[in-house]
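As a warm-up, study this chain.
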Amino acid sequence: MATTDTLEGRLLAQRKLLARIVAALKSDELDKFLSDRDHYDGHEEDPGSDPDGSYALEAALADELRLLSEEVARLRKG
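Now compare it with the structure written out below.
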């Protein structure tokens, strides 16, 4: 059975590999995909509302894409 540390390590390895692939491809389409999705604006209309589970999922997804985009940029700089 996988532990939290094992799962986190696997996800980090996948992010690093995916970032290397995206950086090497130098695709404008992939870059736009990442930049369009690296933030989540789902609760702007009511800043006082309590975020629900769907917000947490969307925010985590956006955060992961932001981290991926940052790693791609770092790799491209050399």
